[in-house]
Amino acid sequence: MTHTSDVLIIGAGIIGCATAYYAARSGLSVTVIERDLPASGTTSHCEGNILVSDKELGHELELTRYSLGLWQGELAEFGHLWEFERKGGIIVASRETSLASLERFSASQREYGIHSQRLDEAELRELEPHITGNALGAALYPEDSQVQPILAASHLLRLAREHGAQLVTHAPVTELLRDGDRVIGARTPKGDFHAAHTVNATGPWAGTIGELAGVNVPVMPRRGFVLVTEQLPPMVHHKVYAAEYVDNVGSGDAGLQASPVVEGTPAGTILIGSSRERVGFDSTISTEALGRIARNAVELFPFLSRVRMLRHYHGFRPFCPDHLPVIGHDPRAPGLWHAAGHEGAGIGLGPGTGKLLAQALAGETPDMSLDPFRPERFDDPAYLKAHE
């Protein structure tokens, strides 16, 4: 069986679903194919963060601000569907050196227009009474928000289908269809899917789709674990993390890195992270990672030493070597587009990525230039040298 549409999206995670929504809303015919079920990959194994606080100045922060504007703007009417919560984030420093670095970091963001407020010890404890007594100060980012990620992806996909998008599940891609050099769709066990534009939105598996097209898309999996506590009265009121977390986000090291990230949920559980390590798609449970996460969290909130953990989960973030996602048309394989490599920021950047890509797919000028995220940058020796 052969299917034909304007846009074929491979992958039904948050990025694919957001792209489907905006593309279908613009009047394009859209088909989404998913090898498993919607939101069953990286999207279902994360915390649902929408953060500006951990972004250094540059293109990712610009995309973050654009996407946050969509979450809080034109998507706000649907916010209750995915439990949008503007809880605010707090970065805590427990050493004088960390406090000085945090102030420099947040000051540079404020100059860029990011809302950030310095907190002294008393102000911090007023906002988070159970914080460690070692805390010397902090920075508050009121724009930091959170959604329930599976709900966000699922409802964006439902809204896309209300605009005519089609969904095919359990349809892994076995081959990209070609007409000469041009990609014209994908082959799956459920048939061939033809399209003028094929979008690779497969998260940490994006490199595999790139290989099918003969192009280098160096998106790699980066494993991370999250702990979930028993239900508690409200005891953590913001997303709270140590200043070292920002360094870990920006690091490309393959080894295990862990820094405390703690936040409450509307259900009463507390989510505790975070860890990062490049181990391929090894899904083995790491007691070392879980132990370090737990110990770090207790250092940040000592009361957690008396709290039961109900479960843990882990998944793979789509890591890119230069810490920028891959978004846009791939001139090395005409007809193929990419939307992947967002690492831990995919939920927050989903709407922005989807809308910008949909504008480009429709032949419009995107609200933001996609040039910094161009897929072919990894074949440019000058670019690679500049980002060594």
Description of the molecule:
Strands 1, 2, 8, 9, 10, 11, 17 and 18 form an eight-stranded mixed beta sheet that branches. The model has no long low-confidence stretch (mean pLDDT 93). Helices cover 29% and strands 27% of the residues. Helix 1 (14-25) packs parallel to helix 5 and helix 2 (59-72) crosses helix 9 (346-361). By secondary structure, it is α/β, with parallel strands linked by helices. It contains ten helices and 18 strands. It folds into two domains: 2-49 and 149-218 and 322-386, FAD/NAD(P)-binding domain, CATH 3.50.50; 89-142 and 220-319, 2-Layer Sandwich (D-Amino Acid Oxidase, Chain A, domain 2). The protein starts with a strand and ends with a helix.
Short description:
By secondary structure, the protein is α/β, with parallel strands linked by helices.
Give the SSE order as H and E letters.
EHEEHEHEHEEHEEEEHEEHEEHEEEHH
Radius of gyration: 21 Å
Q: What's the number of extended β-strand segments?
A: 18
What structural class results from the helix and strand content? alpha/beta
CATH architecture of the largest domain: 3-Layer(bba) Sandwich
CATH C-level class of the largest domain? Alpha Beta
Which regions have little confidence, pLDDT < 50, spanning 5+ residues? none
DSSP summary: helix tally: 10
Largest sheet, if any?
Answer: 8 strands, mixed
CATH homologous superfamily caption of the largest domain? FAD/NAD(P)-binding domain
Secondary-structure map with pairings?
Layout: E1 2-10, H1 14-25, E2 30-33, E3 49-50, H2 59-72, E4 89-93, H3 96-111, E5 117-119, H4 121-127, E6 137-141, E7 145-146, H5 149-162, E8 166-168, E9 175-179, E10 182-188, E11 191-200, H6 206-213, E12 220-229, E13 239-242, H7 244-250, E14 257-264, E15 270-276, H8 287-300, E16 309-319, E17 326-329, E18 336-340, H9 346-361, H10 381-386
Parallel strand pairs: 1-2, 1-11, 2-8, 4-13, 11-18
Antiparallel strand pairs: 3-7, 4-6, 5-6, 9-10, 10-11, 12-15, 12-16, 13-14, 14-15, 17-18
Helix pairs in contact: 1-5, 1-9, 2-9
